[in-house]
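Case study: Replication restart protein PriA.
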Amino acid sequence: PHMTAPADGATQASAHRVRVAVETPQHAGMADVLDYLAEAELPPGTLLRVPLGRRELPGVVWPGEPSAEEAANALPAGQLRPVREALLALAPLPPAWCQLVEFTARYYQRAIGEVALAVLPPELRKLDNTGLAKRLKRLHKQMGLPDPDAKPKKRRKADLQPEPEAVPEVPASPPVRPALTTEQAEVLARLSPQFEAEAPACHLLFGVTGSGKTEVYLRAAEQALAAGRQALVLVPEINLTPQLEARFAERFPGRRLVSLHSGLTPAQRLQNWLSAHEGHAELVLGTRLAIFCPLPRLGLIVVDEEHDPSYKQQDGARYSARDLAVYRGKLERAPVLLGSATPSLETWQHARSGRYQLLTMAQRVGQGALPAVRVVDMAKQPTPGQGQEAPALCPPVLAAVRDRIERGEQSLLFLNRRGFAPVLNCGACGWKSGCPHCSAWRVFHKLDRTLRCHHCGFAERVPKACPDCGNLDIQPVGRGTERLEEQIATLLQDVERPGGGSVRVARIDADTTRHKGSLEEQLAAVHAGEVDVLVGTQMITKGHDFRRVTLVAAVNPDSALFAADFRAAERLFASLLQAGGRAGRDAEAAARSEMWVQTWNPQHALFAALKAHDFTAFAASQLAEREMAGLPPYSHLALLRTEAREGPVAEAFLQQARDAAQAWLKTHGGADVMLYAPVPPPVAKVAGLERRQMLIESPSRGALQRLLANWLPELHVLRSSLKGIARWAVDVDPLSI
Ligand code: ADP
Ligand code: ZN
Ligand code: ZN
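Here is what the predicted structure looks like once written out:
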């Protein structure tokens, strides 16, 4: 393989050799750090524009010495191409940032250049030095800071050492802070010394819903800021950033707070990133991508709802922002605080083993009580007449909803499936609304009368008649949130609100919140009491502090119980507990707060643990199962996925990959790495491509990593020798298998 960029011809006698991380085409088997020539010595982390082939690409001067292999293959200086431009207007990316990127690339088996460039704001990759200097100037003006032109262009090593920044003046009237609960005070007493510790720990803040975890985050951030450091707070979803931002802004008036998530415009994102990188922003709130934000004075990382699957990036470098937060905290000597009422079993295991500090808050704040959980056995409910569908809510749940309406309280109905119905069916010939491109049904969306595939996006108008037999009577089967909303409105049409008027049913899911600001608007209506019954997907179960909700019902949680995925029960437990956590937050109504669960499997152990609000018992039973089955956290997994037009081609790739891995393991030792047979995933065909996957498992993370590092280069070669492989990727620590 080429280890250096091909020469331009032009040579410069006084030039310096620099190692540059660039996005090389991976399949070419090129190294991802290439040598170039620069006119001056450039500090590591400097952003550049370099030629590669006929293109000009962004790159980053990479720290460290070339490996022995790289050195042996290095081209003589005369054959190196010169750097096109060094973006010296931007301070070099800090060494810790480079180290985080390099770790991510190695651990998740991607190229350094790919990760480095993917995690920078997209705008940054386009700008040249002049454009960047203009942006910085504007930014500094907006923030009331000195003109960057006044700074020396070239930074010295000493400039890279972060200095605590002067703390801005405290505003005249400090914000009101609630007196801490006993548990909060205890937790913070244990956390405080960490801000001065030589090697700060990682903590699990295990606090029941409503125990006031946010207040702990706020106080922790306050400590970090008081020490002149920056705090990074991660939330699982964009939707949760506005409310968190509001709380932080209120608590820290006058402090510089920025958010980082994919919902920002490219310009905003660049601006906020620059502000963090330059050390101006003191608080950075964001989604998983914010874990890569350079922060010269990082002093705290919070990961809220650490168990949430959204922390795992699902394409490209499939990193876990939660896991990287733990690594980064260690690297930059910043305390890490992972918060959850239902921690992931991996985190829970670390907390139990003492690797993480366990901080527990078992009580709700004030008089708030956890709702009573009632599990309804659907088998004991009245059966619908011949050819009729069972109503969305069984009689006791419907009665509970009516009861809330009469008292002017809110109910929340949780159904994790959007659209009107998951499939349309022709009773005459058996036609179903399959997707022509995927092995999946197309979902019926009534509002715009479309059949939409949730896997590939393929959408069409609903046919007037059965496409196969012409039958006019094609029927929806099953129920999504859109239909639930409609059915609830019908079920409650004879009910009158105490204040007069009919019952107000609203729905919140990905379909109702497409437009910017619409979620905030809908949530505001709920908070203002303008909604009696709220129907929604898991979007409504996360994080929201609904004060008027006294009833939460899980309409159809069973599908998750029998999913092939080994994490299905863990996920379901977490989402039900989170959902239940929305009820009973108001002290006065807490005593009569309930969570109802409609299930055909009331004997499932998960429900017993849910009734007792006993995460610990649930985790213990799950861990026992995982240990028996040799699944995480007792083993480490990687999943090799591939896609091809033809299933057998995809299988052949995996089979040959498997043979290659086995051969490697035989000669290099690694008896404890297990390679499973290639199988199709639950949805085997998506957008016309057949998917296959192969699981690799080992009790030793090191053994698994060694195999992957040595094996993947072979797979690049294998792929080019096989015709018809559309793509392949390895997913380290996959969330589902
Ligand atoms: P969690 O994130 O643990 O579910 P929240 O942070 O949403 O809990 O807190 C629940 C509610 O309790 C919020 O309305 C919050 O403002 C309030 N709260 C938190 N801590 C205190 C406190 N020490 N005193 C009074 N109210 C508090
Ligand atoms: Zn038909
Ligand atoms: Zn499809």
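For the exam, be able to explain this: The CA atoms of residues 490 and 692 lie 44 Å apart.
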